[in-house]
Amino acid sequence: MRQIRFFFALLLTTGLTILASLHQPLGSPLPAIGQFLSPFTGFWQNAERADKFPDENLVFPQLSAQSEALFDERGVPHIFAQSNDDAAFIQGYIHARDRLWQMDISVRATIGRLSEVMGERTLERDRLQRRKGLLWGAENALKKWMSSPEEAAIINAYCEGANAYINSLSPADYPIEFKLLGYAPEPWTPLHIAAFYKSMSEALCSRHEDIPATNARLLLGDSLFQVLYPEHNPKQSPIIPDVVQWDFNPLPLASSATGDSMLSSGATRTPFELPSPFIGSNNWAVSAEKTANGAPILCNDPHLQLRLPAVWYEVQMQTPEYNAYGVSFPGVPGIIIGFNKNMAWGVTNVGHDVLDWYRIDWANPEKTAYRIDGEEKPVREVVEVIQVKGRDEPLRDTVRYTVWGPVTYDDPEHPNHDMAMRWLAHDEPAEKPFYALGVFTRLMGGQGLSDYQMALRGWESPAQNFVFASKANDIAITVNGKLPLKEDQQGRFVQDGSRSASGWKGFIPHEHLPRVVNPERGFVSSANQRSTAPDYPYYYSGGFDDYRGRYINRRLAEMENITVEDMKALQLDSRSLKPEDALPVLLQLLDSTASELGAHERVKTLRNWDYNFTKDGEAPSLFEDWFEAAYAQAFDEFTVWEDSLEVLKPEDWRFIELLATQPGHAIFDHQSTPEVETAEEVVLMALKKALEQPPVSWAEHKSTDIGHMAMIPAFSRLDLDVGGYGDAPNAIKPDHGPSWRMVVELGEQPNAWGVFPGGPSGNPGSAFYDPMVTPWVEGQYNRLHLLDSPDDPAVKPLYRLTFKTAE
Question: What Pfam families does UniProt report for this protein, alphabetically (predicted)?
């Protein structure tokens, strides 16, 4: 039945396009109708049923010993291998079997190779990805990774496994997206793995505000800029509690340039589209003293783009060195978030600014050299060769590299020409015993706190808040990664690239990174808020959440006798401190106007609202419309400026603070009217505008979609009936949200639960494509079974794959 529903939905959404393609040349975006409907090579060849899979014996001489993968009733593989390399081989094989097109297209999008399969329409995007240096960064990372025999072996084994599956395919077996786009999968290589890691750097640590902040400071003047853009929210509850004392002597900074001497001017627009500001996550761990069962509990829910196929792939992996369960990224080996019998770990994004822009002082019109400290330096020219489907010749694009990094734009007609990007993700990792992949191998096999602490030494980028709990009742959190050593305010604005003093001063030593172990309050947590209180001795800036962390810390401090169900409920909690902070101020200002709107029925609903963004509630929709309208009214000048340049807008918390403490501030006065408006008038005008919108449920207002990666509606789950809010723990937004929810109680045996919105298969015609979307929407969890052996009776296998070295 699923295949029939899918097929008719596909006809409805793409039928006209397909009919128009009856005589398309090979390789057009959609196939001819006959090819698509062919029972031998088209869609029906890809349709699967849950009971389709028989047990199989597979022979691969690359393996060192016989291994097995059993698949439970949800299609989750449990891999049992005799070595780490064999486990990586099998994981690569299964990832490719279930998520091959996702793996392929993710890497193409990252390193600028979409045009090879999509033609001219993605050429400019590919050029930009090359000019951003993502391929260069992947190559730099891979050099170091392959110098580690341990990691090189795992990388090669994973690629061999993926390619063993790819090589078994005929065109009839290709995933449906390859057929729709008319191209064949290519071999999976170590560079693909490194490129995938760079895609995470792009998503998690490429945000920057240098250009819009520089513009705002130039337009507003330094005094007003400081009023509107303070760096520290006084209500913030940092990741590392403010009672923690720093037991190290910070490195001295030998400063030869500070403040304005490092700044460049004349910026206009950000050189490329920034990753979504909605990417965030929650994690926490509570000690045994706070739980009902006397066992610590760890929770993690990373908030990433909601898409199909899903971001994550659930798996258990057992070898003589580890037995772990969790989620992995299709395309790379290991388990990123998970647990074993002794400990559990999870991650959230740190958010420190590790990408700065430098204005280049060219030494000649040809731009073959530039000046630093009065001396000329030659650029390094890299010719990027981009193959384009439908073209006889590739595009060749020359990118100039400086000591700072690539010059993303050098066309004088482009508003952001002649700026170079200094980005941590470009760096070759520092010499160390192991690198990124070794981090997760060690966590998977970790026995306790010391193993966790040792494993984190290998991680550099993107910086993550690694949370930890162990059966021995240790809990910890570490703000972990390679973080630049900067002077005060450095990197907050566009820098002067003609001065070496504008550069980073090194990196914060690993031993000085913010961390806490077994705090007295009995819990650790992070939700992308600031890492520390202002007394941390090293300067950093970045993008930080102002509400989720405060709320989670408040709730955890209040809770005792905590159960697994309590932790699930906190992950699913849709209450937010943002309306708790803002709504009383809005209502007080409204009431001071004596407007009859204060007695409006919809406003009465707001007065009685509990700040919970439930799916059926109308109050959340009115609050959001009112708040957004008030913000837009207050900062109307910014809307005018945005027509010609990009300007940083004040944060929501600061807007609320100004409403409450300075309602007569000049920022509330509309420049387009002769009257002098105050916050009261702004709030009243905004409410009138908000009430023009008809009442609507929060789910309909928010309109959450889980779209297919190729934006094919028939392969998507649209208009989900779900609550949640970006500034609540249950941070479900229109297309971002909790991509994996996990709760692990570390008792005598782990009691673990999890869910993600998708399924193991990337095949839209499979029963395993999206079966967990509805449970995810409804707040349900699946029991996560960490099996002792392939014959463990805890699960009844749906089918088994036996991997043999010979017949």
Answer: Penicil_amidase
